[in-house]
Amino acid sequence: MEMTDAAFNEASALVRLDHPDYSDEEVHLATIRHRVGDEVFKRAYPDAHLGEA
Question: How far apart are CA 13 and CA 46, in angstroms?
């Protein structure tokens, strides 16, 4: 589990570099979206917009 946490934290850091304007919640959600893919993410988080207007 520690390796998984480290990988998630690393991915989150990369999201934050690409999107410095994202809140902590948006970084968390964007990291999840990257991990599971757009289709699964949209079904699991239909109201998430991640900086979109």
Answer: 24
- Check: CB of residue 9 under 8 Å from CB of residue 15: no
**Residues of the domain holding 20:** 2-44
Contacts 24+ apart (CB under 8 A), 35-41: 35/8, 35/11
The pLDDT of residue 52 is 62
Query: How is residue 46 written in tokens?
Result: 């239909």
Question: Model pTM?
Answer: 0.82
Work out how many domains the chain is built from and give that number: 1
